[in-house]
Design a protein that fits this description.
It is a single chain. By secondary structure, the protein is α/β, with parallel strands linked by helices. It has two domains: about 160 residues, Rossmann fold; about 80 residues, SIR2/SIRT2 'Small Domain' (2-Layer Sandwich), CATH 3.30.1600. It has ten helices and nine strands. The chain has a six-stranded parallel β-sheet with strand order 3-2-1-7-8-9, sandwiched between helices. A three-stranded antiparallel β-sheet has the order 5-4-6, with helices on one face. Helix 8 packs parallel to helix 9. The chain is elongated, with a radius of gyration of 18 Å. The protein binds adenosine-5-diphosphoribose (APR). Adenosine-5-diphosphoribose binds next to strand 8.
Amino acid sequence: MNDTLEEAARIIAGSKNLIAFTGSGISAESGIPTFRGKDGLWNKYNPAELATFEAFINNPKVVWEWYSWRINLVLNAKPNLAHEAIARLENAGILKVVITQNVDDLHERAGTKNLIKLHGDILIARCISCNYKERLSESPRNIPPRCPVCGGLLRPDVVWFGEPLPTKELKAATEAARKADVILVVGTSGVVYPACLIPFVVKNAGGKVIEVNISESAITEIADVFFKGPASRVLSALVSRVNELLKK
Ligand code: APR
């Protein structure tokens, strides 16, 4: 790993506009299941029955029972060394923005400030009939939860399959990718559009792609540097080396 580490650390230390793009793999070591690959959620559950608006309308109770289980996983999880390494890079003024597909709050709890959440936030519930929203500090007691303002159904404030990404976040992420000279891609299979296009925007604009994953992904073909390993170990070593290079 040393040569790869050295090469990636030099690219990052020399970057002018580094951004990060993360997927569920960065939260795997915090005990939050990924969606694909070994033990992936979509190996056990059918996304069409749990992660579409139609499934929710047909069976809000079943969908909320599944999301309550995921909400409790997030609330009981802690940021891992990978989230902390990403926050350290931002703190050092090297990393400008984190674009995440994740709906957990582990980047925020690790201290990341400039964060774009492309797929929403599992800890927010919003009304499907009015614009009421609330932050959840625990999974809802009544399932399905009802809007206290209009009595309508509350839904998790996440992007389901077949739904558009939030316009403001997608625009901000695309603009950040266009300006980036380096993108650090961590823990994503790179197969869900349009989010997975972000690393390609950087590549097509002449930027460098550094990928961290325990196995190859759909992004690996465009990676200038590919680290095969768990995000917590790789990112901790990478950020320490970057700091050494910048101290010189
Ligand atoms: N360190 C680094 N990478 C890891 C680790 C780890 N410890 N554990 C797993 N991975 C990698 C897997 O090899 C895989 O490539 O993380 C990736 C997870 O891929 P997915 O489960 O497909 O998650 P993600 O890419 O974030 O999915 C994108 O799909 O279902 C939708 O909305 C959901 O946001 C999600 C989107």
